[in-house]
Amino acid sequence: MSYLREELYQLQKTDSGIFDFIQESSLGGLWYWDLATTRNKWASSKFWKIVGHETEAWHTVLSQEDLAAIEAHTEACIANQSYSYTQLVRCTHQNGTNVWLHCSGLVLRDMAGQPYRMLGVLLDITRQRNEEVYTQELASHYGSILSNQSVYIIKTDARGNYTYVNDFFYERFGYDSKIIGTNSLESIVEEDWAKCLTVVGQCFARPEVPQQVILRKPYKDGTIRSNHWEFKGVLNGEGQVGEILCVGYDVTLLLDNLERSKRLLELTKQQNTRLQNFAYIISHNIRSHSANLTSLVKLMQNAKSEEQAAMFLQMLKTSTDKLAETIVNLNEIVTANSTFNQPREPRLLRLEVDKTLQALNILLHESQVTVTNDIAAEVTVNVVPAYLDSILLNLLSNAVKYRSPDAAPTIAIGSYEQGEYTVLTITDNGLGIDLTRNRSKVFGMYKTFHNNEDARGVGLFITKNQIEAMNGKIEIESEVGVGSTFKVYFNESIQSDLYS
């Protein structure tokens, strides 16, 4: 086939188009330089096209540094009596970017063996060069991540065994290289195992999709730290999850601050509740006592006999004693030592009910209400005294206030035990409430169900708030025209000195 080679050589000599086709199609251009006069340089149009110029602009394309490097290679070739060399050449594109060319140089010599021309065959390798630089930068970037001193980076195989951990993980958790190959669950607090396995399952179900989880791990100093992790399933060549990549960072301080904020919010809520209860007791309970005292004073003034005046005086003493007790209880709330808790004390429930009935004696007398108190004398409840006073006063005064005009008013009071609760029942035959329409509103703020002028709609709301503050509850059974039964559940499972 040598005749084809000879034929191609001859065609190049006689037809310049063939040479142009070869160098334009397969090369990045040609250089042909006069070594005697270095300013005389020629380059093919393909070269100028690659560097973004339509005309020769050597001073723009080649900096003094780049030109000096080319000349140094050429001189080294001449000094070594070599005919050819290779070199990586950097040129500057018209848009300011770098163009990288692989130059295969050939030094041409005359009959006396003296170099007089340099031929450069160029190949554009800019894309490959940029890819190499990008790869190097990427490797450097991920290398810095892997050795990052602020995040943990680990990898496990599909069975959960460690295959890689970065230096920061080693340092913080106190492990060494022996951890490689061990089960990653062993370094997690056992209570978090189920949560971890759930997230790993999600990585298998949705590969390449990051999954978030917070896990606790013991540190080398013995403390337990919370860490936020991002897990991601990494597919192998067979399209299956072969690894789990985990990147994490310490969020212990963040979670501690969040917990402190929750406690502060709860404290604020409790303080607001106490303030609300205090304001209600002041405005409602003391107002009731005041009204009762005013009525008793008027009755004493209009007494028709000394015996009647003495009776009213005794009733006045009872009312003032109850008022004094209410004020003492309020003072205990204000001066309570615990920010979070109010002191609970044992109280004989029947005795407390009788005291409240005595405080309401004028109202009961004027309304001609028949009251029966069937609570056993020994029944004791552990309560915040001021709250119990308020609850009893509100429920009993409501039973009188909302009595039926069509029947002789009655109030029946009783108690029974139910599990951990002592249940107080107060039943009246008053107006009743339509629970089909209003059950969800009964204990709401500013909810009223009758047309009494003095109704403000806060009494039952506060009562519910106070009993729940003592970990109890309140329920109602009611029917319009029949009456209502309130059930107050006092929680006796809580220690008698505190509620939380």
Automatic annotation (TrEMBL):
The keyword Phosphoprotein applies. It comes from the Bacteria. It catalyses: ATP + protein L-histidine = ADP + protein N-phospho-L-histidine. Residues 82-137 form the PAC domain. Keywords: Kinase, Phosphoprotein, Transferase. Coiled coil: none annotated. This is histidine kinase. Pfam families: HATPase_c, PAS_3, PAS_9. Its EC number is 2.7.13.3. Residues 281-494 form the Histidine kinase domain. It is an enzyme of class 2 (transferase).
